[in-house]
Every structure is written in C-alpha cells, then in structure tokens.
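[SOLVED] Need 3D model of a two-part complex

Original post:
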Amino acid sequence: MTRPLRQTVGAHYGWKDWLVQRTTAVVMVLYTLGMLGVLLYNGGVDYALWQALFADVAFRVATLVFGLALLWHAWIGVRDIWMDYIKPTALRLTLEVLTLLVLIAYAAWLAQILFAARQA
Amino acid sequence: MPVSGPPVTKSRPVYLNLARIRLPLPGLVSILHRISGALLFLFGIPLVLFAVRTSLESAHGFASLEAMFAHPLCKLVLVGLLWAYLHHFFAGIRYLLLDLHIGDDLRPARQSSVVVLVASLALTLIIAVRLW
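Solution:
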C-alpha cells in the first residue's frame, strides 16, 4: 500500500501568511488611495460630508474590509515580532494569545461602529 | 588530500555588537518598517477606532475631536503616527515590488530605500506644516 508522502519539516503555514500579508497590504493601499482621493476632491472633511460618507453602505462595507485586512495584517506582523524576540515559550504564547484577543476585540468594535443601528 | 596543521578553531558563538554595526540603508528601512508597524498596532489602531466612533456620534462629538486634535501635544502624536503610516506604506510597496523582482539588484535596492526614507519624511513634514 502506498501512502502519500508526509511533510516532515516546517510548519508550512509560512507561505500562506506571506500571501495574506501581501494581499491585505494591497487592499489597504487601494483603500488609502481611495480615501485620499475623497479627501482631496472635497478639500477636507466636515461633519456633514463625514456623515454622508458613512451613511453609504458600500463605503461602510469597504471600510470593514479595510479594517479586517488591517487586523489580519497586524496579526501576522506582531506575531512575527514575538517569534523573533521572545524566546521563553510560555511568555511568547501568552503575548500571542493577548494580541489575538485584542485584535478580535478591535474587529468587534469596528463592526459595532459601522453597523450598529444609529439614531437618525 | 593531506591535512596540514591543526584544525582552525573559532570561538563560538559569535556575539555581534549592534552598536558597532553600520546598518546599510535597506536595513534601516527594514527595521523602521518593523518599528512603525509596532507603533501603528499599539497606538494607531485604537486611536483611529476611537476617533471614528467619536466623530460619527454627533456634530458635538465631531467638534470635540477637532478641538482635541488641535492640542499641540496631540498634534505631535498624530504627526508621529502619520510618519509611521507613511513609512510603513512606502516601505511596504517597495517590498511588494522586490517580491516581483523589480529593483532587487544592489544599486536600485539602495536607491529605492533612500526614496522610501525621504518620501515618508518629506510628506510627513509637508502635512505637519499644513496642520500647524
């Protein structure tokens, strides 16, 4: 009986994280340029424009996508920092879990800001 | 092949004195990319979330945020985070291009690292001056 070759080295999540880091970066570049365009086109922002912008569902969805891309990107970057500098496993694991929890909390906060029912 | 003399022994591990290493410019861009990313994670994300929430709450919230950002100390923090964002942005685009093997020879890589450093600092300075 032949069995498929088993991967015996590496955690092999590396290339996926590499790709996610790049993909989320491109998403953020596009959103940043779009936002910059809106601000330059209107010559700044006042409360009325700000409200109108966030009243648009498409803008809110784009902002949520940007935010989630940012948080995912931040997870990979911050985890890399812990992996590079924090040698004791228990401490590193604690910091990684804390980072993850903070990022999930930010995601929930962002969703609440963008999509919770607001008084008219 | 005859072996001549005793084997060469080096004292290991080798400890590098970070203070005595002259970091090449691409290395400077790299460590600043990491530092700016850490700053954006620690301070940038919570600040932006707070600002978006407050600014959308009401006209009063929007105005109070404007008043807060008018404070010189607050402006200083904003300018610092602005630099972090711009540096991370430009250095990140440089890495995306390097991934595509665009400009990954020694000379263009050095030149683009200078462009990243100068562009992010210059843009930060220009926007900071307009803020003040």
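Edit: The mean pLDDT of chain A is 92.
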